[in-house]
């Protein structure tokens, strides 16, 4: 308990490592220790709030060596670093091919053609793997092969001249294709040359390939359209997704679905809504307001991720919040809410119904739901998503979900990075029928606004802290489900609201560092993390049109009071404790 108090109580400042290691039982494990570290008791809910905070958990955990704990290297992982949350059961992709995918499996303007030497190395690696000459991590999965060749095919059929095949790629393919066509499985050959017309020595396998079952036939037909540079209809996308999902862990026959040509609105809607009824209708929470937070599921790798702590603040004055995501996801494999909650001892296996109970709890008012529990079919794609390298359409649509509904008003907040995705996200939010929606261009594509000044050398395009959205209004130019909506867009400058510019705190994949920053802020420690939480609570309240937030300064003061009174911290501790007790 002493280590936990060091993290959650500002009055404790030093805990020697020896006190953690002494007297451990024969059954002691790192995960058991973490559970003990954050095993909350009622007496911890009355912590005093102060500004002199000294946290040592990160130093304690990161200083503990394998020798001190008497564990073999295979028995321990460092829970302080986000990348260690990757499941050891997931097969690793071949790095040579993965690096090539990063170049060729991207958009019409971002693709970087390979040189002849690079293409030769990739094709030789694929050929050796197809012949069974590579094992374990060196093996190239069919998902990787499919993603690479799909990228090459779409480039040849639909990309502008500058990002079509280079002369080096064509020479390498002409050399290797006669060998590849004898070694690759038919479905990969189909993806590489679906009409037998891309590669000089064409094969008849691609044009004749149809699949074995009715579901495979539908999939092959859809792929022919996509590989030619075309798009699919709403029903086509939904039908294919329901045919192929969920994937099995050992399924190496998965067809890749990366993002190269920009999706149409109907394709995005199909991805967004395809599994709404997978576990039945969502439970309805008896609350007057519920905000769904759609952070990027692959997390933050550089900067403080504040949304969990913002939710604890907003819940203090009746703005209930639902967070959702996964523990770990490629390509970034960064810090997520699930990692932080799991590290602090919360139950991260809540069903939507259990989350509803916590949202309705007057001493909590927010919850987190893992995609694993709410959409198991989509969660089954994690391994595939690592092997296809680039973000699939799901990276956009999974941020616009409603795993729990509300009797009162609902709103969705999401982050974006690439310009052009703000309008599709808002379109999906309106399709969901919510009363308000907000997209934020935050750092790393997350949804949190920063307090730092805008760089004079900032890149072209929309700036960080650009916000766009809609909210209910008395009079508006559009209407969704009978509710008049007004649209808005602006760039938020924290200094305009009395918050001095500061750089966003760095976390660099450290889960404990992110927790320390958030808990210090909820303890009332003033600084960049505190200001960022205040800004994102008050500004979101204002932009969504929440009650009592018409005046931005009043909204910000309300958020400050929630922290300085200790109520926000108490709600977070209540959540950690009660999430383990909530009835199924």
Automatic annotation (TrEMBL):
The keyword Glycosyltransferase applies. GO terms for molecular function: glycosyltransferase activity; GMP synthase activity. Keywords: Glycosyltransferase, Transferase. It comes from the Eukaryota. One of its GO terms (cellular component) is cytosol. This is Anthranilate phosphoribosyltransferase. It comes from Cannabis sativa.
């Amino acid at each position: 308990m002493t280590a936990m108090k060091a993290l959650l109580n500002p009055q404790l400042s030093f805990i020697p490592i020896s006190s953690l290691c002494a007297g451990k039982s024969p059954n002691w494990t790192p995960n058991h220790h973490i559970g003990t570290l954050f095993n909350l008791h009622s007496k911890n809910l009355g912590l005093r709030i102060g500004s002199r905070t000294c946290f040592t958990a990160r130093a304690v955990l990161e200083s503990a060596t394998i020798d001190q704990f008497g564990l073999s290297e295979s028995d321990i992982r460092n829970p302080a670093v986000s990348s260690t949350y990757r499941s050891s059961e997931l097969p690793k992709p071949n790095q040579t091919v993965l690096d090539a995918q990063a170049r060729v499996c991207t958009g019409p303007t971002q693709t970087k053609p390979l040189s002849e030497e690079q293409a030769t190395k990739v094709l030789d690696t694929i050929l050796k793997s197809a012949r069974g000459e590579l094992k374990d991590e060196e093996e190239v999965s069919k998902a990787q092969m499919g993603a690479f060749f799909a990228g090459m095919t779409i480039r040849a059929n639909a990309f502008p001249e500058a990002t079509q095949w280079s002369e080096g790629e064509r020479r390498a393919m002409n050399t290797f294709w006669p060998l590849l066509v004898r070694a690759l499985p038919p479905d990969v050959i189909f993806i590489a040359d679906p009409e037998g017309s891309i590669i000089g020595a064409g094969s008849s396998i691609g044009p004749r390939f149809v699949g074995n079952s009715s579901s495979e036939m539908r999939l092959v037909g859809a792929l022919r359209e996509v590989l030619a540079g075309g798009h699919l209809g709403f029903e086509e996308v939904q039908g294919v997704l329901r045919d192929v999902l969920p994937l099995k862990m050992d399924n190496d026959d998965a067809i890749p679905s990366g993002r190269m040509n920009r999706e149409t609105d109907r394709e995005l809607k199909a991805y967004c809504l395809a599994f709404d009824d997978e576990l039945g209708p969502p439970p309805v929470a008896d609350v007057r307001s519920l905000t769904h937070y759609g952070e990027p599921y692959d997390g933050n790798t550089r900067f403080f991720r504040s949304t969990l702590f913002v939710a604890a603040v907003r819940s203090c004055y009746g703005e209930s919040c639902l967070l959702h995501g996964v523990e770990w996801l490629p390509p970034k494999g960064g810090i997520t809410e699930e990692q932080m909650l799991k590290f602090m001892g919360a139950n991260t296996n809540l069903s939507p119904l259990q989350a509803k109970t916590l949202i309705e709890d007057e001493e909590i008012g927010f919850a987190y739901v893992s995609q694993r529990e709410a959409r198991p079919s989509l969660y089954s794609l994690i391994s595939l998503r690592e092997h296809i390298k680039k973000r699939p359409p799901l990276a956009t649509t999974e941020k616009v979900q409603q795993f729990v509904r509300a009797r009162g008003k609902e709103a969705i907040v999401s982050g974006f990075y690439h310009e052009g995705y703000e309008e599709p996200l808002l379109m999906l939010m309106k399709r969901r029928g919510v009363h308000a929606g907000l997209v934020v261009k935050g750092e790393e594509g997350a949804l949190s606004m920063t307090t730092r000044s805008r760089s004079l050398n900032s890149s072209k395009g929309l700036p960080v802290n650009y916000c766009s959205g809609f909210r209910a209004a008395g009079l508006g130019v559009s209407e969704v489900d009978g509710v008049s909506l007004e649209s808005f867009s602006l760039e938020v400058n924290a200094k305009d609201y009395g918050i001095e510019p500061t750089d966003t705190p760095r976390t660099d994949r450290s889960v404990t560092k992110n927790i320390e920053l958030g808990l210090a802020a909820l303890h009332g420690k003033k600084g960049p993390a505190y200001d960022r939480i205040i800004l994102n609570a008050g500004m979101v309240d204002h932009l969504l049109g929440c009650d009592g937030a018409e005046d931005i300064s009043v909204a910000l003061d309300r958020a400050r009071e929630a922290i300085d009174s200790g109520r926000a911290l108490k709600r977070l501790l209540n959540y950690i404790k009660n999430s383990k007790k909530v009835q199924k």
